[in-house]
Amino acid sequence: MIISRRQFLKYCTVAAGAIGLTATDLMKLKDALALEGGVKVTWISGQNCTGCTVSLANSVYYATIQDLLLNPPAATSLDLNYHQTLMGGMSNEATQATDVNTPTVLVVEGAIPPAASGFCEVGTFTGAAGESVAEVVSAIAANASAILAVGTCAAYGGIPAGNPNPTGTKGVQAFLGSSFRKKIINIPGCPPNPNWIVGTIAYLIANGLAFPQLDSLRRPRTYYGERICNSCERFGKVFINNNTPDDIGDPTQVTSCLKKVGCKGSRTKSDCSMRKWHAPGFGQLGVNWCVGSGAPCQGCTQNFFPDRMSPFHYIR
Amino acid sequence: MATVTLDPISRIEGHLAVELTTDSGNIVTDAKSQGKMFRGFELILQNRNPRDAVILTQRICGV
Q1: For residue A136, what pLDDT is reported?
Q2: Interhelix angle A5-19/A194-206, nearest 10 degrees
């Protein structure tokens, strides 16, 4: 699907409003997206569940995945260099066509186990057959202009790194080390909201790969700036009774605070409560979110998910 | 007789490689597939609150 110029400008306007771009930035975004070949994006999957890819594929708020990433390179688009789940090619033809030395925006989904462990092999990129994700990420990261760690696994280790961390796996920043810290943007979430991923990429290209304002966990403040409780519709309401298993997801308790049944909203930063999930159409906010449907927040955007968020549900 | 190795297989969830052996008539005589990623969910789930299993195991596959 190729978008028309009119549609594209409409997308830009909405995107700019939502992520706080000025009119000058908007012009830059237009220019960046219109470049031949666009911005190169290489998407590498580690120990992932592909949930982040599915989340990205559900993007409709700023632009759909077809509009943003999969247009032919000559059209106004990003150039999605390599993506194991979305690309048409496969095997060595796809991996060896990926030039690891060209500057690119490297997107990592999933955690990274040690190179020699054999816990995650992604194909043959630079020579040796069956390279580990650790080798491939190191090679591409060395030349990358920005590294996006999409999902809590890539950002902080997430569930694969949960106690006892059987595969010795790490998030991107812990794996690459402190010398790469300035190149990394974390977009945690399990999965992250599609708007967080698309909005961050749009910000990068609109500003010539300058980074948005980041917090101490290197998450964009636009999306991870406030605690869930700050704008939760249940905040300050009577606590839900914590005596029976029926309390969780009980439709008669829709206005109660879920803290006493295990909600981690007070320790979790994201804009879930305002942005919500499953946006039904272009420029529209989502229809619901975890806490809105009666499920306690799991704290999936924090660096100590899942271990220090456990137990997720309290039933006494 | 030829051997064809496809690694990675794209458009699927996860990391998969397939190795095919064909005879002189291009008929596949042997096929092996490998899942190339391991996270150890069984080990991660041990010694946890049983109710956490609901949250953790749903992340085995996100598709």
Answers
A1: 93
A2: 100
Two structure tokens written together for B21: 């052996």
Contact B52 A312 (CB under 8 A): yes
Query: Hey, what domains does chain A have and what are their CATH numbers?
Result: 5-223 (3.40.50.700), 226-316 (4.10.480.10)
- Rounded CA gap, A161 and A145, in Å? 27
Rounded to a whole number, what is the distance in Å from the CA of B18 to chain A's nearest CA? Answer: 10
A15: helix, coil or strand? helix
The angle subtended at Cα A85 by Cα A170 and Cα A176, nearest 5°, is: 25
CA A228 vs CA A87, A214, A301: distances in Å:
35, 18, 10
The ipTM (two decimal places) reads 0.91
Q: Do B7 and A91 touch (CB under 8 A)?
A: yes
Q: Are A295 and B51 in contact (CB under 8 A)?
A: no
Q: Which of A8-17, A110-119, A170-179 is least confident? A: A8-17
Determine the pLDDT at residue A316: 60
Contacts of B17 (CB under 8 A, 6+ apart): A121, A123, A130, B5, B6, B7, B8, B9, B33, B34, B36
- Angle in degrees, CA A143, A80, A211, rounded to 5: 55
The residue ranges of every structural domain in chain B are 2-57
From the list B5, B14, B44, which residue is nearest A162 (CB)? B44
Model confidence over A121-170: pLDDT tens digits?
998 888 777 889 999 999 999 999 999 999 999 999 999 999 999 999 99
Residue of A nearest to B18 (CA): A91
Backbone angles phi, psi at A141, to 5 degrees: -65, -30
DSSP type of residue A190: S
Determine phi and psi for A96, rounding to 5 degrees. -80, -15
Residue type, A304: F
> Residue A241's pLDDT band (boundaries 50, 70, 90)?
low
